[in-house]
């Protein structure tokens, strides 16, 4: 299992709610969380088969930015 981290602009509970269905539907993702207290709003994703580019694209489709750390 790989762990990916992204700097995002997901900065509040409503933002997390907006991205939740997108990340939950993504095949190969086991768990994910956003640290909204971190200044970089770090999204951490643990995935079996999903790669960093796929995760980034999914976050962007949900309307947010994601830059891999």
UniProtKB/TrEMBL annotation:
SUPFAM superfamilies according to UniProt: HMA, heavy metal-associated domain (SSF55008)
Record-level Gene Ontology MF annotations: metal ion binding
InterPro entries: HMA_dom (IPR006121), HMA_dom_sf (IPR036163)
Signal peptide: none
Sequence ranges assigned to domain HMA in this UniProt record: 1-67
Transmembrane segments: none
Name of this protein: HMA domain-containing protein
Origin species: Pontibacter actiniarum
């Amino acid at each position: 299992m790989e762990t990916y981290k992204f700097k995002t602009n997901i900065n509040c509970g409503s933002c997390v709610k907006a991205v939740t269905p997108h990340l939950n539907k993504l095949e190969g993702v086991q768990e994910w969380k956003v640290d909204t207290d971190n200044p970089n709003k770090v999204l951490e994703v643990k995935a079996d088969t999903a790669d960093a580019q796929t995760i980034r694209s999914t976050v962007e489709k949900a309307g947010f930015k994601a830059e891999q750390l």
